[in-house]
Each structure stands twice: as C-alpha cells, then as structure tokens.
Amino acid sequence: MIVLIGGYFLYQSLGPANLIEDITGIYCEGDTVDEVKCECFVKPIILDLETRFNPQQLIDLKNNPIRSAEEFITSYNNKKDVINKCFKSKGESDNIADSIFEDIKSLFTK
User: Fold this and answer.
1) What Rg, from alpha-carbon coordinates, does the chain have?
2) For the segment 84-106, what is each residue's pLDDT rounded down to a tens digit?
3) What's the half-sphere exposure (Cβ side, CA atoms, 13 Å) at 41?
4) DSSP string, 23-83
C-alpha cells in the first residue's frame, strides 16, 4: 500500500484531487457505493481524521493533496485493526485489501 500511496503523492502534485475525497467518492457516493468498503474502510478513516482535526483543519487538509494523503495513511494505520476486524465480520477475506489497492491504482490513470 505504501508504494501505491507514494505514487498517489505524485499524482496529487499534478492534479487538484485528494485521496480522502477520491476514496469517499469511490466507495460511499453515487453509483459506485460499496457498503462494506464504505463502512469498514472509509468510515473508520474519516472518523479518525475527524477526531484528530477540527472542521477548519479538515477543510485545509482537503485543500492540500499531499498532506491529505499523508494524514490518510496515518489514519489508516491508526484504524488498521478496526478495519480488518470489520472486513472479517462481513465475511471478507484479507484479499479485500488487494481490491482497494487496485481501486487506488486506477485513480492514477484518470
């Protein structure tokens, strides 16, 4: 995941998007909602971000793509155990991470 996120830093420096909004858009919004990935992956990360930053800091973070990706990684690491337990409780295997990595990688080709 670190390699993919590292590549995403490069992508971020070339474009206006950020990882937090991109992942939320992929799993929790629109026609591509994935209930399990939204609940087990995105929501714990967003909750961690919301506990570490006040609303204005979150806005500032979303306007700084590189920092948002760094903080996303920190929140992922903070919630990794919760994320894995949630996936297991939903009957998902450890390979679910491969699917998420592929989705992140697909963001590079947009």
Assistant:
1) 13
2) 899 999 998 767 877 787 777 67
3) 25
4) HHHHHHSGGG--HHHIIIIIHHHHHHHHHHS-HHHHHHHHT-HHHHHHHHHHHHHHHHHHH
Alpha carbons 80 and 43: distance in angstroms, whole number: 12
Q: Are 20 and 68 in contact (CB under 8 A)?
A: yes
What's the token pair of residue 52? 């570490």
Q: Is 83 exposed, middle or buried (0-12, 13-18, 19+ CB in 10 A)?
A: buried
Residue 74 has pLDDT above 70, yes or no: yes
98's tokens: 């491969």
